[in-house]
Specification:
Strands 1, 2, 3 and 4 form a 4-stranded antiparallel β-sheet that branches. By secondary structure, the chain is α+β, with helices and mostly antiparallel strands. It is elongated, with a radius of gyration of 28 Å.
Length: 96
């Protein structure tokens, strides 16, 4: 397992570096990044560890695309015909 460790006595400095570094790693098609974990650090500061591995070559990379036009799915037509209820049931509002 390959891990990157970002640590410093100044937690703000670690946050600044990870805010730049993690999107770069995530956008690299040759790498897959795991979930970052913040580990305890004696004396304050911050220590973040993340697993980084080569992206699998045999599987295509998944993408997500949002629809940009305003087309909606066609509305379903109603036929107006009612289906009969099974024997022994009553419709709402009907009392015996």
């Amino acid at each position: 397992m390959v891990q990157l460790r970002i640590m410093h006595a100044d937690a703000d400095r670690v946050a600044e570096v990870t805010a730049i570094l993690f999107p770069l790693i995530a956008s690299c098609p040759g790498l897959t990044m795991g979930d970052p974990a913040e580990l305890g650090m004696r004396g304050g500061g911050s220590r973040i560890v993340v697993e980084v591995i080569p992206a699998p070559r045999e599987h295509p990379r998944r993408v997500h695309a949002d629809r940009v036009d305003d087309r909606q799915a066609p509305a379903r037509r109603r036929t107006g015909a009612r289906r009969a209820l099974p024997p022994g049931t009553q419709e709402a509002g009907e009392h015996r």
